[in-house]
User: Fold this.
Amino acid sequence: MKVPFLDLKAEFEHLRGEILPALERVCQNASFILGEEVEAFEREFADFCGTKHCVALASGTAALHLGLLALGVQPDDEVITTPNTFLATAEAISYCGADPIFVDIDPATGNLDPKLIERAITPRTRAILPVHLYGRPADMNPIREIAARHNVRVLEDAAQAHGARYRGRRVGGLAAAAAFSFYPTKNLAAYGEGGALTTDDDQIAKYARAARSHGQTARYEHEFVGFNYRMHGFQGAVLRVKLRHLYAWTARRQEIAREYRRLLAGARVEMPVDDPQDECVYHQFVIYVSNRNAVISQLAAREIETMVHYPKPVYLQPAYSSLGCPPRTFPHAERACERVLSLPMRADLTAEQVAYVGNAVREIVGNK
Ligand SMILES: Cc1ncc(COP(=O)(O)O)c(C=O)c1O
Assistant:
């Protein structure tokens, strides 16, 4: 049985009857940049997150960048974040001319360990940027308390966590602002690049709306030097269609995760811990194994595709060698990167595929 990691072509066939008319509306209105579909998506996604505002943008990276600028991050500031993330989290900090300051993860969840944050705060710290990695909410209450105590702001990197809940509340509304990505592989995904900033703060939303469009507050009135970070009309149309399916898709991801956990109970793997007070949306279902390359090739031999998110912590990437963080600086992040393996996780996996993957992993790694 073949189990591809992703199958975006199959997803399109399923949605074709809804997507094509939506794209046609954009063509008929010729609203290719922002426009009616994007505005409607902004309202619908803000409602979904329970926030006052959603500002649709060109990518998740753009959302992180504008979010940090809106929080006042400036050159030579420091922003505390996790090294166990996609590079874009740190890149957005660098775009502001600020320095990413890494703090190790909690090995149980893979997310920023709040217990380690306070000792990383300096007079230069301007913001904290937790990531809800794999769709599992970061521990936001202690993070917000520390931020309030030190008068620094918090931006959520919610790129992987559309619809996840922390203590009953959706991510996106848990801090000053939140950045979402709609990259084609995300739980809520565009047919191209896309992102959004959500916030309850009128000033942040006002800034982001102007900044995405060359600093314009009215046509050809440029208050400041901004960016071209606008969402395309086609992406707004696609995202509106897919948002209507997101509840069902998330429920299915969660069901698959429960089944994987059941099949892998007692097997020689570790899995991140879910806090029963929260709701993980399983952007990825990851396991930690000691002999990863052997597991990958044995799964590949059974036509099961896997991926590694992520093979190196950000500070060990050549792009961040200038930080001068040697190996072993953050041992939990490094151990996670050495052992992590993402199994196929998407709403359209069949029960047979899930059982096939779970049983294959179990056979390959053996019992504890
Ligand atoms: C955690 C995280 N942050 C930021 C991004 C950047 O989003 P984008 O690719 O839409 O720019 C991504 C995904 O690509 C991500 O996974």
About this structure: The two ends are 27 Å apart (CA to CA).
